[in-house]
Every structure is written in structure tokens, then in C-alpha cells.
Amino acid sequence: MRAECLVLFGATGDLAKKKLFPALYHMQLNNELDIPVVGVASTRWTQEEFKQNAVDAIRKAVKDVDENVLNALISSMRLVIGDYREPATFEELGIAVGNAALTVYYLAIAPDQFTAVTNGLANAGLASKARLVVEKPFGRDLESAKALNEALEQVVREDQIYRIDHYLGKESVEDLLVFRFANTLFEPVWNRRYISNIQITMFEKFGVEGRGRFYDGVGAMRDVLQNHLLQVLAMLTMEPPIDLSGESIQNEKVKLLSAIREVEPAEIVRGQYVGYLDEPGVAPDSDVETFTAMRLHIDNWRWAGVPIFLRTGKRMAETSLEAVVEFQQPPRLLFKPVEGHLSSPNVLRFRLGVGDGVDIQLQVKAPGSQMFTSPVDLSVEFSAAFGERQEAYERLLDAAIEGDHFRFTRIDAVLESWRILNTALKQPAALEPYESGSHGPTCADDLIADVGGWNPLHNAAFTEN
Ligand code: BG6
Questions:
Q1: Is 165 in the pocket of ligand 1 (CB under 6 A)?
Q2: Considering the entire predicted model, what is its pTM?
Q3: Is the peptide bond before 137 cis (omega within 30 degrees of 0)?
Q4: N or C: which end of the chain has fewer CB within 10 A?
């Protein structure tokens, strides 16, 4: 059933400004937004200030704004101001929501405010007609995620909760499933017999950019590895779902995540960029990691023995989001690599961020009289093939309004991903400093040395500033 109203808690905040308002504009442009939008915030803005803020955010994020579309969106928006602990806030919200049969409540707020909001909704009689969209990270570890879920379940059922991981809204991440299960070429070799290792990298050139206070409370593992990177890994390694329903996809993801061994401290590197401690909002003696790399093991029939490497960091040499699948070397009985090239295996590279696409690295005959091999890439750029595509938040908001769980995470999958990091979070590995603009601490290279090191990143050409 389609929701009839959208409520944004945290409507004066950063997420609303950077992601949600631009997404709403695109939805309006594509005729996907035919319901009123109500913002809720504790900041005492007037209706005009609220609307102007949304207009400014949209103009900043969108090229060539269509004024009619913008006006239509802005006129459907209003703001309710109030303390999230006060019943009066929810009474006013109830009036703003009116007689909508179903409302999406998007909690773009700090996790410690979640229960105040859900209790407020329940006490005002709004919870039974609610869908709750909750931002990641869901909890801080296994115990707190369970506790948060129990608190939410006091008020709503699991099927009313939409846990956001915006990577599940990326077309490039969804493509992993299509690529694997809509092509005959890859599935037969997608296992331990043919794949030597998998590497997933999420590097960002920028640092914490004004989010120091938030970031210092989470760090790289909680901010992106527990959610974004494990979701990418699940899409890459799960068994085919029986259909594309949210339930079937989640069932396969949970099966996969539960086969991942809890990661050992010895197989984790944690780093912090030099200068992080001077960032506004960061504790002067912070032990929070801005880089992490780890080696994982999937103990199931398909993947046993195939090492999986994940790494992420801020203030890196480049911005890059890639999943690399390295195949086993064939027996090298016949050909030698051309001078200057190492004998390299076949590599499938999913470029998932800016400039997304896929590269397949193959060996071909090097020119010349000798039978030497040389690596070449078969590449596709999705933007060249398909033109402009939807942004993640547009697709996620739309899915929550439609009531489709396909692009959200289920509680058992969330708990499995916290379980994988349980020891890593309780007994953090020593923190290694690294220079801004580098590839992180050098011990992250040692972690993967036995399989030939990290495959060089490919999307430098698309690097964001
Ligand atoms: C967010 C993290 O979830 O994802 C940020 O909190 C990170 O720290 C961001 O920068 C990256 O998202 P994207 O879509 O730009 O890869």
C-alpha cells in the first residue's frame, strides 16, 4: 500500500539538506511524489526559513532546476517545530498528517533520539499507521542493536521498519545481482574453484568534513564497514534468491552473513589520519579509526578458503568504490607475460561509485613476433551506456512510500553483521597513524600480501575533488 504522507524528523539537519531535499526534488520531477511532506525539527525556524533552506539545498545539488517543479514541491511542504520528548509536538504532527491512512516517518536524527520519537508517535496514536525509516548505523554493536530493535518493536512491527543502508539504493550495487544472475558467463565460475580472492575498497579523498562529532562517535567500522561494505559483499557472494521479494533477498543475505566468521583482531588493521585529532568535534585523545582493513572468511561450500578483503578510509589518495574479483591463474605452460607486465590473473572489477561500470581484465596476445601475453580491459561505463540514472535516496524514499523492503535491511541481517565485528569492536586493534593522501597504514598491505597485494584501483580518472 502506498503511503499518503511523508514526515521527515531532523528536517533542518545535514542529511535532509544534502540528500533528502534533492531526492524529493527529483521525485517531484519524475512525478513520483504526490503526497505532502511534513518536516519536524526542534530548531525554531519559521515556515519561510524552512522552505528557503530546502530551496537553497536543492539549487546547490541540482543543475538546471525546473522552477515549476521546485515550486510544486515547496508548496507541498510544511514544518512542525517542537521538542521530540513533548506530547504537544506529536499532537501538532497528528494534525499536519491529517487523515493519511499510512505515513512514512523518516528518522534523520541521532540514534539517541529514536525512542523519544517512536514513543511520541505511539502515545499520539500515530504508530499503527506508520512506516519508520531508520538511518544507519543501526545500533553501535550487537547488544545495542538488539536493544534498539526491542525498543522499536514495543511500538511497531518488523514489517513497519525500513532500515536504511543507502548503498542498497545504488544502481551499481543492485547491478551486482543482475550481473551475476542474468548472465551465463560468470555463475559457473563464481566459487572457490575459480576465484582466488575478493577485495572491496571504499576510499574517500575527503576527511570528516564538519561531521567530526558524529564521526568520532562511530569510526570507519561502524560508519561504513558494518553496513555498506558488508552489504556489497553479500550482494557479491550470496546464493541466488528464489525471487526478488524483500523476504527472499534478505533470507539469502542472512544465510551468507551468518557463514562469515567473526573477524579476529590479528586480521584487522585500524588507522587514523594524521590531523584527525585537530578536526572540530573530535576528542583530542580520540582512539577512533578513520581507516580499517580486514580479512574475512566465508565458511560455506561456495567460498571456503577464498580470502575476502575489505578496506575503507578517509583522507585517502583517491576517492574510489570498487569490488574486485580475482580469478585463479591458469597453468602458465605456454606463454610468458610481455616485458614490464607481471603475469596477472583475470580480474572482474565492479566500479560502484562515481563513474560506475564494470571492467574485465583479460590476457591477449601482445603484438610482436613472440607469443607473449598482455593484459587488456573490456570496460563499460554505465553513464555512457544509459545516461543519467536515479540517485540512491530518491529510490529509497520511493521504496519506503511504496512499502517495498527490497532496498532495506532486515534485523537478522543487521545483527549478523554486528556479530562479525563483535570482537573487533570490543578489543580494538592498535591504531596506526597514516598520512592524508596515502593508501592508509602499510600494514594493510601485509594483510593481503599472500595473494599478491591490493589490485591497483582503476577509477582514478573519475576521482571526485
Ligand atoms: C555515509 C557515511 O553513510 O556514506 C559517510 O556516513 C560516507 O561517512 C558516505 O562519506 C559515502 O556515501 P557515498 O554514497 O558517497 O559512497
A1: no
A2: 0.94
A3: yes
A4: C
